[in-house]
Amino acid sequence: MTTQNHDSSAALVKMANNIADYFHSEQDRQIALDGIVSHIKRFWEPRMRRKILAHYAEHQGEGLNELAHAAIAKLADEQRSAA
Q1: pTM of the predicted structure, to 2 decimals
Q2: What share of the chain is helix, strand, coil (3-state, %, to 5)?
Q3: Domain ranges (residues) in the chain
Q4: Cα gap 54→83, rounded to integer Å
Q5: What's the rounded Cα separation, in Å, for the pair 59 and 2?
């Protein structure tokens, strides 16, 4: 996948959902959310994080599965707190 494809909102939503699917089996929801947020912070470029946060804000996280949606909400809250 090219960088340009990584920048599309649809690709980022799919990636976030895939990460959430990985953590879905974690019984402790907080550990799962922290794991998803940590993964996005560690492995996504800043522009990818900005784009998924913009998608969350502008489209209420449309397309994100429940766990991914909660993790992006947590990431958005962290970003607001840091500002």
Answers
A1: 0.89
A2: 80, 0, 20
A3: 3-82
A4: 16
A5: 24
